[in-house]
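One-letter codes give the sequence; the fold follows as tokens. An example follows:
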Amino acid sequence: MPELPEVEGVVKALKPEIEGRTIESVKLSETIHLGFSVGKQCIVKQAEPEAFEVALAHMTITKVVRRSKYIFFHLLKEEVPYFLVSHLGMTGAWFVVDSPENINEAKFKKHIHATFRLTDGGYLVYSDIRRFGELRLLANLEDHAPLTKMAPEPFDDDACDFFIAKTLLPKYEKKAVKEVIMDGQVISGCGNIYATEALFNERIHPARKMNRISEKRKRALFDAIVAVLRQSIEAGGSTISDYRNINGEAGSMQNRLQMYGKKACPVCGTQTSQMTIGGRTSVFCPNCQH
């Protein structure tokens, strides 16, 4: 959390607010600076905090796009392109405000870690309560290997065939389906919430091995993932705890979830079960899902 729909909502809100604007200066939190001084990279990766602050000054934000669960800020400085790559982790949030003091929720205001002052007034602010998010300034996207290994966007025409081919590889064929569909090298942007929902919609047990699922059923599962992602984008994402868009607003998809976080199955009324798969808690109906 946040997953693809939540990141999509952030990007859609950011684009009209910051594209074409120039960064005057950047200030990172004391937490980031202190962490680096004792050998721990907190939020800012692959760069010293001071170098990060200096490098971003006077860069123009030319474009903001989403790729899987990442936000790519396309930047330009003295005609040289750069990328600021943001992953929100568990509780990362971006705000565009006249002043950092205008961030309404105290928990986000308390945990501001990067403040971008813009030349025409106002601020782009990154807050992260649990500090699992990442900011990387890259000259080339290839400089961070995971970015080169992402699966196609789930909405691309070739994404389903890509998914089917990946599931046949020895690396994946004996893994639990829940773990496989949350792997960003197999399907982009599908995390715990939407994997849980898609598996329930198709009545597939999350621990079922990939090689025990037919191709027809795999394609139906892929379609279910795409459908629930689209539904969540339309609803502004799911606000389970700390997701907010740039205006501090919550999404409403959590009100439409059928299985994630539920105590009883909405279809048969059976008490839901839980198990850990791929390090994440998986909720399922032991009666409906096989």
The chain has two domains: 4-148, 159-284. The longest helix spans residues 215-234. The mean pLDDT is 93.
